[in-house]
Design goal:
Layout (H helix, E strand, L loop, with lengths): L1 H22 L2 E5 L3 H4 L13 H4 L20 E4 L1 E9 L9 E7 L2 E11 L18 E9 L10 E10 L6 E12 L37 E3 L6 H7 L10 E3 L1
Parallel strand pairs: 2-8
Antiparallel strand pairs: 1-3, 3-6, 4-5, 4-7, 7-8, 9-10
Length: 249
């Protein structure tokens, strides 16, 4: 009887451990993603599911983090180079490229890439993984530009995408964190380009219709109006030099 109970407990423990290793693969942990902050997913299980599997735990919001509830408590993110942090359960030799984007919080189509890395989940553990070991940490560098950001009043979505290639076809994972960019300007915040207006073209009045009499001297010169010097010279003696354009000498 006692032996049977021990065996049952052992089987349950093995099943639980196996399920956790299969279900919780990995993702971004810093900045902390929406999956944890607004969706309440577990860091030890549902947080790290592949995108299609995660849809079972999000109350109709699907598995893609870009559709998760936004986090109003924005996390600061500096411009220039910095590092994000990840973790992965090491039941499989987790390999494959990672890409990081900054995304407009109102339009998923407006995005820029700010980082990429081959086999990012093995950045701190380059050797092959082994079953039963604790989750391994990882990190990768991103580089946030100071302008042209797809943000809204500094609010951007930092989206981490991992293509896990230890199986075929590949599995896809992503995590999204709502961040506030410090020291950068977005496309929406950039001032519009300066518009210059050409001055109106000056037309030479016809000699047959002289302007009002002015000046009165023997010589007139145009005042910063190209093309009128000769006209003033010809009409000076006739008293037709316009006071608005010429001066007497």
């Amino acid at each position: 009887m006692k032996t049977a109970a021990v065996l049952a407990a052992t089987v349950a423990l093995i099943a639980t451990t196996s399920t956790t290793q299969v279900a919780a693969h990995g993702g971004m942990t810093t900045p902390q993603p929406r999956a944890i902050r607004t969706m309440g997913l577990s860091i030890d299980s549902t947080f790290g599911h592949p995108i299609p599997m995660r849809a079972s735990y999000t109350n109709g919001k699907g598995g893609d983090c870009i559709n998760f509830t936004q986090d109003k408590n924005l996390q600061p993110l500096a411009t220039g180079k910095s590092k994000i942090k990840m973790r992965a359960n090491d039941g499989a030799n987790h390999v494959g490229p990672c890409t990081v984007y900054l995304v407009d919080p109102t339009s998923n189509s407006k995005r820029i890439e700010v980082g990429s890395m081959k086999d990012c989940m093995r950045s701190l553990h380059p050797g092959p993984g082994s079953k039963g070991t604790p989750p391994i940490p990882a990190e990768m560098e991103i580089n946030v530009p100071t302008s042209g950001l797809p943000c809204r009043d500094g609010h951007c979505v930092l989206q981490f995408v991992w293509e896990a290639q230890h199986i075929s076809p590949s599995e896809f994972y992503n995590n999204c964190a709502d961040v506030k960019i410090d020291g950068g300007s977005s496309r929406n915040d950039d001032p519009p380009p300066t518009q210059t207006q050409e001055p109106p073209a000056q037309t030479q009045p016809p000699a047959t219709q002289p302007p009002a009499t002015g000046g009165g001297g023997k010589w007139c010169a145009a005042q910063d109006v190209p093309g009128l010097a000769d006209w003033c010279k010809w009409n000076c003696e006739a008293g037709n030099c316009p006071a608005s354009h010429c001066k007497s000498c």
